[in-house]
Amino acid sequence: MRKLDTRTIVVASHNAGKIAEIADLIGPFGFSAKSAAELKFAEPDETGTTFEENAAIKALASARASGMPALSDDSGLVVDALDGAPGVYTANWAEREDGSRDFAMAMEKVEKALAERGATSPDQRSGRFVSVLCLAWPDGHTEMFRGEVEGTIVWPPRGTKGFGYDPVFQPEGFDSTFGEMTSEEKHGWKPGDAQALSHRARAFKTFVETCLEA
């Protein structure tokens, strides 16, 4: 494992919600970071078929364009009754013809697909959020960190916090959806804590333990 010896990195994302969440997580460690969107880097084509492949594509593109280490996240919602969909195509389910993304539409697509399969009770609506962080260096070296959180797909959507599919995901052991939780509640982790709740926080915790801590 390669340790990160700088606190200056690029957040390899153009997704405003994702950038904000990563900023919340890296903030306590004193990182100086700019996003690929701020630096006006082109978005690479995510041609991978796994979260790991797409995370690497994004991180390596920003690392090589900037000459600095870059941290990316590829994440998605995996629904068991839908054979793992939308999975790596989670963002694609929200795409409109004009290229914009509408996650209210995407959540309705998930609900419609579940209804078509007769998945109406909570035990038939299990799923998980998956996050894979990739830390890449300009020389092509990468480190991967995966986090998952189990839960249930609920309907109708609840809450206006978070982003993406958060309002329809109720994590296991909680009565609230991610859309009803504050950032602190959703992540459930800060430096020194033993536990992390969200998929991204769990991946980030492993990243900290692997690449930052002595």
From TrEMBL:
<protein>
    <recommendedName>
        <fullName>dITP/XTP pyrophosphatase</fullName>
        <ecNumber>3.6.1.66</ecNumber>
    </recommendedName>
</protein>
<dbReference type="GO" id="GO:0046872">
    <property type="term" value="F:metal ion binding"/>
</dbReference>
<feature type="binding site">
    <location>
        <begin position="199"/>
        <end position="200"/>
    </location>
    <ligand>
        <name>substrate</name>
    </ligand>
</feature>
<dbReference type="GO" id="GO:0000166">
    <property type="term" value="F:nucleotide binding"/>
</dbReference>
<feature type="binding site">
    <location>
        <begin position="163"/>
        <end position="166"/>
    </location>
    <ligand>
        <name>substrate</name>
    </ligand>
</feature>
<dbReference type="InterPro" id="IPR002637">
    <property type="entry name" value="RdgB/HAM1"/>
</dbReference>
<feature type="binding site">
    <location>
        <position position="186"/>
    </location>
    <ligand>
        <name>substrate</name>
    </ligand>
</feature>
<dbReference type="GO" id="GO:0009117">
    <property type="term" value="P:nucleotide metabolic process"/>
</dbReference>
<feature type="binding site">
    <location>
        <position position="74"/>
    </location>
    <ligand>
        <name>Mg(2+)</name>
    </ligand>
</feature>
<keyword id="KW-0460">Magnesium</keyword>
<dbReference type="GO" id="GO:0009146">
    <property type="term" value="P:purine nucleoside triphosphate catabolic process"/>
</dbReference>
<dbReference type="GO" id="GO:0036220">
    <property type="term" value="F:ITP diphosphatase activity"/>
</dbReference>
<dbReference type="Pfam" id="PF01725">
    <property type="entry name" value="Ham1p_like"/>
</dbReference>
<dbReference type="GO" id="GO:0017111">
    <property type="term" value="F:ribonucleoside triphosphate phosphatase activity"/>
</dbReference>
<comment type="function">
    <text>Pyrophosphatase that catalyzes the hydrolysis of nucleoside triphosphates to their monophosphate derivatives, with a high preference for the non-canonical purine nucleotides XTP (xanthosine triphosphate), dITP (deoxyinosine triphosphate) and ITP. Seems to function as a house-cleaning enzyme that removes non-canonical purine nucleotides from the nucleotide pool, thus preventing their incorporation into DNA/RNA and avoiding chromosomal lesions.</text>
</comment>
<feature type="active site" description="Proton acceptor">
    <location>
        <position position="74"/>
    </location>
</feature>
<keyword id="KW-0546">Nucleotide metabolism</keyword>
<keyword id="KW-0479">Metal-binding</keyword>
<keyword id="KW-0547">Nucleotide-binding</keyword>
<feature type="binding site">
    <location>
        <begin position="13"/>
        <end position="18"/>
    </location>
    <ligand>
        <name>substrate</name>
    </ligand>
</feature>
<dbReference type="GO" id="GO:0005829">
    <property type="term" value="C:cytosol"/>
</dbReference>
<dbReference type="GO" id="GO:0036222">
    <property type="term" value="F:XTP diphosphatase activity"/>
</dbReference>
<dbReference type="InterPro" id="IPR020922">
    <property type="entry name" value="dITP/XTP_pyrophosphatase"/>
</dbReference>
<comment type="subunit">
    <text>Homodimer.</text>
</comment>
<dbReference type="GO" id="GO:0035870">
    <property type="term" value="F:dITP diphosphatase activity"/>
</dbReference>
<dbReference type="InterPro" id="IPR029001">
    <property type="entry name" value="ITPase-like_fam"/>
</dbReference>
<feature type="binding site">
    <location>
        <position position="45"/>
    </location>
    <ligand>
        <name>Mg(2+)</name>
    </ligand>
</feature>
<feature type="binding site">
    <location>
        <position position="75"/>
    </location>
    <ligand>
        <name>substrate</name>
    </ligand>
</feature>
<keyword id="KW-0378">Hydrolase</keyword>
<comment type="similarity">
    <text>Belongs to the HAM1 NTPase family.</text>
</comment>
